[in-house]
Amino acid sequence: MVLSVAKMCDLAAAASLASLCTWDSPAGMASQLSRIMRPDDANVAGNVHGGTILKMIEEAGAIISTRHCNSQNGERCVAALARVERTDFLSPMCIGEVAHVSAGITYTSKHSVEVQVNVMSENILTGTKKLTNKATLWYVPLSLKNVDKVLEVPPVVYSRQEQEEEGRKRYEAQKLERMETKWRNGDIVQPVLNPEPNTVSYSQSSLIHLVGPSDCTLHGFVHGGVTMKLMDEVAGIVAARHCKTNIVTASVDAINFHDKIRKGCVITISGRMTFTSNKSMEIEVLVDADPVVDNSQKRYRAASAFFTYVSLSQEGKPLPVPQLVPETEDEKKRFEEGKGRYLQMKAKRQGQVEPQP
């Protein structure tokens, strides 16, 4: 991997994190990882790339879910990422800070594992810690002998009945949304000659990547974290082209992994602007896989997600975003859909704000 978790947290750091990053997790189902942020993890402004953090989140989730799925005697497996729920980038992380990633299993169904991951940043000069990310991920265990075989997940013991019931509701909701998303993501991003500024075509971007061994799991298919990092890179390029300023990831809507990507495939990661508010941009990212060495399989949609970015000044202050100009009927439709998601999330955030006494 290009990015790997450097070392386990020591006991003192783990104890400190436990008091700051907590979730309703069955007893014993938790682990912590940490590493220092380096210059190659960050953009020109010194802020750590959202894709770098997403990749660390996925690594932590893969470790704990794979460990749990192999906790009983039986066929050995590796947990594969199926979905990442919405995650917000609550605070920027900078070069020299230590990222602490805490992962805990919060629910298991017959064939899937729900993992809650929290990310804290620590300034090791001052000792200051702050929460930067919270994410929920879903994994499925795939047999080491047969990559197409999904194994059963060992159950966990819940501390209370409501915990299991709440987890089951989350499981059913994400399963339904993942299926709906797969069927409505059939279109592709086409290049346009001489596009006008502030249009969808002007900023849309694509990245082509040959999947090598370092990108893959023991099965020979791509790590979810590798895919997410590439998706964030493309979304960042789209946002920068549109604004021509420093940009940072603000949030990521649910990332759905529709199908596995095998070693040797050529993947095309495409991004296009779908909606702009006064100070944010929504970018749709699509991942298509082309099994060039296997003539029996056609190009297919492997993953999809919506990323939200904000534009920042040199001082790190939010800047107004140039308004997107949708041209075609499809672009106008996607703009209205993006506006609906924006307003829905805005209302949800306002509802979470406690009234002042």
From TrEMBL:
GO biological process: lipid metabolic process
InterPro entries the record matches: Cytosol_ACT, HOTDOG_ACOT, HotDog_dom_sf, Thioestr_dom
Principal localisation: cytoplasm
Class in the EC hierarchy, top level: hydrolase
CDD domains from the UniProt entry: BFIT_BACH (cd03442)
Compositional bias per record (Basic and acidic residues), positions renumbered to this chain: 330-340
Coiled-coil portions: none
Name this protein carries in UniProt: palmitoyl-CoA hydrolase
Organism: Equus caballus
Encoding gene (name): ACOT7
